[in-house]
Write a structure and sequence with these properties.
Length: 247
C-alpha cells in the first residue's frame, strides 16, 4: 500500500506543480522542482500509506468481529490514506505557490483526498483496482487544485494580475514572501530571457498593507497601489488590493 501510494503521490504532485507552472508560463517542471516532487511525493505517499495501514491493521485486530460483519469498515483505511495523502500534498503546494497558507492548504487537501478516495472506490468497483487508482489520482489532483485555488482566493488581501493578452490573465497572491519575476528557474513569474530579462528582474511584496516592488533592472523600490498597472516587456501587470475592491 505504501509503495503504491507513494507512486500515485508523485504523479498527483507532478500534475499540480506542472499545472501551476503552466499558468505562470514557466517550464512545466525544473530540475529542482522535479527533485522536490519526487522526494516530497514519495515521502507523503509512504507516510500516508504506512500510517493508514497501521491504524487500519490495529483497528481490524481490535474489532475483527465488527469488521467482518460490516465490510464497509474495510474501506476506512483507504479513505484515511487518501485523505492524509491529500492533506500532505496540499500542504506541500505551499512550497511552490507564493504566500499560500500551508495549514489551510493542507485542510483543503484533506477534503480533496476524501473526494479522491470516493472516486477511487467507485472506479475500482466499476473498472477494477488499477484503473481505479489512476482515476482516483486524477480526481485527487483536480480536487486538490480546486481546493487550493479556493483557499488562495479566500485568503487574498492583495494580488498581482498578469495580463498575457486581452483575454487571458493569471492571478498571483501577494504577501510577505516576495513574488519573484525574472527568467531564472526558481521564479514565480517567468519573463523571457531572450528579451533581455535577468534571472531576477523584480521582487513584489505586500507587508503591513503596503505593496512594494523592488525593481532590479533600475535599482529602485516603488510603492504601488490598487489599480496601478506596469508594463514589463510585452506584459501588463496590475496590482489589486482589498481596499481597491471595496471602493
Amino acid at each position: 500500500l505504501g509503495l503504491w501510494t507513494a507512486l500515485l503521490a508523485v504523479f498527483a504532485s507532478g500534475m499540480l506543480v506542472a499545472g501551476q507552472n503552466y499558468l505562470t508560463r514557466r517550464p512545466l517542471i525544473s530540475r529542482k522542482q522535479l527533485g522536490m516532487v519526487v522526494g516530497g511525493g514519495l515521502a507523503a505517499g509512504l507516510v500516508s500509506g504506512v500510517v493508514s495501514q497501521y491504524f487500519f491493521s490495529f483497528g481490524a485486530a481490535m474489532f475483527e468481529e465488527l469488521v467482518q460483519k460490516a465490510p464497509v469498515l474495510l474501506k476506512l483505511g483507504q479513505v484515511i490514506c487518501w485523505g492524509l495523502l491529500g492533506a500532505l500534498l496540499g500542504f506541500g503546494m505551499g512550497f511552490f505557490i507564493p504566500n499560500l497558507a500551508r495549514t489551510k492548504a493542507g485542510a483543503a487537501g484533506l477534503i480533496g483526498g476524501v473526494i479522491g478516495a470516493i472516486a477511487f472506490l467507485v472506479a475500482m468497483k466499476l473498472a477494477g483496482e488499477l484503473p481505479g487508482r489512476f482515476i482516483g489520482t486524477a480526481v485527487l489532483g483536480f480536487a486538490i487544485g480546486l481546493a487550493v485555488a479556493l483557499v488562495e482566493r479566500l485568503a487574498r488581501e492583495a494580488a498581482l494580475i498578469v495580463h498575457w493578452d486581452p483575454n487571458e490573465q493569471t492571478v498571483i497572491n501577494l504577501g510577505p514572501e516576495p513574488v519573484v519575476l525574472g527568467s531564472g528557474s526558481d521564479v514565480h513569474l517567468y519573463l523571457p530571457r531572450e528579451r533581455g530579462f535577468p534571472d531576477v528582474a523584480a521582487l513584489v511584496t505586500f507587508k503591513d498593507g503596503v505593496v512594494q516592488m523592488d525593481n532590479k533592472l533600475s535599482g529602485t523600490v516603488h510603492t504601488l497601489h490598487g489599480g496601478n498597472k506596469l508594463e514589463i516587456g510585452s506584459l501588463i501587470i496590475e496590482i489589486q488590493t482589498d481596499v481597491q475592491n471595496q471602493t
